[in-house]
């Protein structure tokens, strides 16, 4: 699938009519991730349908249960007081005639998750309330936009952060709508089209070697990189999988997590 949020659509003019909204279920920095959702009707799909979207925090969009695009860490890092990038996607392939559902997952990201190390950490650096703004349009007609009619709930992501890593509860994969949303004050004039290429996944890197260290399995990829881990596991319901990350190994082949973490967790729990 090709993501069309790059230069192909970067020059499209956008007139914003949507509201910046925040999920009422949001528990604040470091809390369980939340989502907002709505439904809309398309009688037919004859023209290009464009989704414009941005967030105070990080976002992922799902249309009819399918993730839109292949970008990571959208909308990207910015000086939130001065500007906020938005992305534009052509989304015809995700839509169907009749009722459609849109869900947008949110996370703290650079907006409010912990930056700096534990002894000098900063929380809520740019604000303490996550927000998302989005509108879907066919030609010049807006067919769906964020407003106070949207609903919200929590996702399976129990906690996440730039330094923290992620805790994910696979037993909670079914999303449950539990709350509404609220409009939050935001100047739409701060929205600017994304001016750079998006963060993308590169070809997968295979491990150079693996070995057992006490009760841990060590996997050495032979290089320092930013990425996500893909693996298959089996276990009983309620079991936990811990994945720690480090940049270097000690002389006996163990992880030296203190150098990487500097009092940050750098751990995924699934």
Mind sketching the topology for me?
Elements: H1 7-10, E1 21-23, E2 34-42, E3 49-56, E4 58-63, E5 66-67, E6 84-90, E7 98-107, H2 109-112, E8 131-138, E9 141-145, E10 151-154, E11 157-161, E12 165-168, E13 176-183, E14 191-193, E15 209-213, E16 216-220, E17 242-244, H3 257-261, E18 267-269
Parallel strand pairs: 6-14, 12-18
Antiparallel strand pairs: 1-13, 2-7, 2-10, 3-6, 3-8, 4-5, 4-7, 8-9, 10-13, 11-12, 15-16, 17-18
Explain the overall architecture.
With 270 residues, the protein is mainly beta. The protein has two domains: 7-193, Jelly Rolls (Sandwich), CATH 2.60.120; 202-270, no CATH class. The protein is 5% helix and 36% strand. The chain contains three helices and 18 strands. It has helices spanning 7-10, 109-112, 257-261, and strands at residues 21-23, 34-42, 49-56, 58-63, 66-67, 84-90, 98-107, 131-138, 141-145, 151-154, 157-161, 165-168, 176-183, 191-193, 209-213, 216-220, 242-244, 267-269. The strands form four sheets. A seven-stranded antiparallel β-sheet has the order 1-13-10-2-7-4-5. The longest helix is centred in the C-terminal third of the chain and has 5 residues, at 257-261. It is globular, with a radius of gyration of 20 Å.
């Amino acid at each position: 699938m090709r993501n069309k949020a790059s230069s192909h659509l970067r020059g499209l003019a956008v007139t914003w009519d949507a509201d910046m909204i925040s999920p009422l279920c949001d528990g604040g920095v470091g809390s369980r991730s939340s989502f907002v959702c709505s439904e809309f009707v398309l009688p037919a799909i004859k023209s290009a349908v464009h989704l414009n979207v941005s967030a105070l925090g990080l976002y992922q969009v799902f249309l009819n249960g399918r993730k839109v695009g292949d970008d990571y860490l959208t909308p990207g890092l910015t000086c939130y007081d001065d500007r906020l990038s938005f992305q534009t996607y052509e989304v015809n392939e995700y839509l169907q005639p009749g009722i459609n559902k849109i869900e947008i997952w949110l996370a703290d990201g650079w907006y409010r998750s912990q930056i700096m190390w534990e002894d000098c950490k900063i929380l809520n650096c740019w604000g303490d309330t996550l927000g998302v703004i989005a509108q879907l349009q066919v030609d010049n007609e807006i067919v769906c936009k964020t407003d106070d009619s949207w609903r919200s709930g929590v996702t399976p992501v129990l906690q996440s952060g730039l330094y923290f890593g992620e805790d994910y509860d696979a037993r909670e994969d079914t999303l449950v709508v539990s709350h509404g949303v609220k409009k939050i004050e935001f100047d739409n004039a701060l929205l600017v089209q994304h001016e750079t290429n998006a963060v993308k996944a590169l070809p997968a890197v295979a491990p150079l070697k693996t070995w057992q260290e006490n009760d841990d399995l060590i996997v050495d990829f032979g290089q320092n990189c930013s990425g996500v881990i893909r693996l298959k596991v089996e276990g009983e319901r309620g079991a936990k999988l811990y994945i720690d990350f480090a940049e270097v190994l000690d002389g006996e082949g163990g992880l030296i997590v203190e150098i990487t973490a500097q009092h940050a967790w750098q751990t995924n729990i699934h």
